[in-house]
Structure formats: C-alpha cells, structure tokens
Amino acid sequence: MRTYKCENHETSNANAETDESPQRVLLQIVANPQKNQLITILTKETMTAIASNHSISTQNNHIFSFQSVIRNKTTDQKSLSAYEWLSENEFVQLEGQGTFGFHNFEAANKQFQAIYFTLKGDLAAHYAFFRGIVLAGQPKEVYLENIHENRSFTLKFYKKNEAVAKEYLEKIFRIVNDEIRFKQVLRKVLINQEKHRLEEKLLFNELSH
Fold first, then answer.
1. pLDDT in tens, 147-180
2. Closest among 187, 207, 208, 191 to 45, alpha carbons compared
3. 0.90 cut: is pTM over it?
4. Are 181 and 63 in contact (CB under 8 A)?
C-alpha cells in the first residue's frame, strides 16, 4: 500500500544518513557470535511484525461485512418489491406495512403504501449517519419519514412509484455502506501503520546500543 511505501522511503532516508542499513547491521551481527542476544531480539521483533501483518490481514477479511447486505444471492433483485428488498437486508428489522386506497376517489385508481422499519445489527450503531442521509434530500415521488423518538423509519410512496422507492433505498444504503467500509479500512490502515512505526523504533533503538 502507498502508506507503507512512504514509511519505507522515510526509513531508507534515515539509513542513508547513518550509512548503515539494518540489513548490513544484521549481517555483521550474524557474523559475530557474541551478538546472539541481539539476534534473538531481532528474530523476536521480526516474528512480531509477521504476526502483526497476519493479524491485520485476517481482520481485513472481515472489514467488508456490509457487502453481504442481501442474504439471498440467487434472487433476481430487479424483481423484488421495496418491501421484499428490505426483508432481504440483514441490517433491517421490518415492523410491518400497509396499503391504503382513496375510497372517495376510486376512479383515480391510486394506492398508497407505507413500510415501517428500524435498523439493527452493526448498522444500528450508525443510525445518526443513516438519518443524516435521509434528511439530506429525497425524490419527490418518495417520502422516507424518520421518527427520531424510537429511531424508526416509515417509507411512503404511491404503488406506481415503487421502482423509484426501491431505487432510493438502494442508493441510501449504498452510501452508508461505502462510508462505513471507508472508515473501517482507514482505521485498520492507521493501526497497522502505528504498529510498524513502533516496531521500527524499537528495532533501531536495539541496534544503536
């Protein structure tokens, strides 16, 4: 990754100033049997770095937990209704739905649909960000209402606009998903970078004695 290249570059500059690379020092130590204790230290630090990299790599395999939002991968997503799409989302708790007609204006042939849901799992911890995206703006054909008191949402739309409603749901969940993934990756990179910095510092401190 670019971050590590930058670190290696800085380390390289530091080595150039001392005119003594860690590799050269290590070879000198190996050639001198009296340095066995330091060899043990260097070996221990090397193994620590390897273990650290393995740990970060293992953790990174779980970073994209939000990628598997839809449980049923064989389902044709385009054929799903808005309610079905939400029901397939592992981070959504459906609370029910309702369909309402206008009995006084049956000739208008309009059906109004409402879907009630809350967030659950890891996504519930990002309720504030999700709510902010909802409040940022919505298509005129859709109204996603947030009831802040109980952290619930109600999606309202005319039946004829269901495709627009589902497209809007896909969009806001994708935005939240991307933001969460970015923060997770950034956090892992910063942790890895700090570990490498501390290990390098310890290594050069030992070599300078």
1. 999 999 999 999 899 999 999 999 999 999 898 8
2. 207
3. no
4. yes
What pLDDT, in 10s, does the model give residues 83-109? 999 999 999 999 999 988 766 555 555
Residue reference for tokens 């570059």 = 9
Per-residue b or e along 70-100, where b marks 16 or more CB atoms closer than 10 Å to that residue's CB: eeeeeeeeeebbbbebbbbbebbeeeebeee
**Residues 122, 68 contacting (CB under 8 angstroms):** no
d(CA 160, CA 113): 10
Q: Would the CA dihedral through 62, 67, 69, 73 be positive or negative?
A: negative
Identity of the amino acid at 103: H
Q: Which domains does the chain have, with CATH numbers?
A: 2-64+188-208 (no CATH), 71-185 (3.90.1150)
| Block residue for tokens 């808005």 | 82
Q: Give the residue from 8, 6, 28 showing the smallest Cα distance to 16.
A: 8
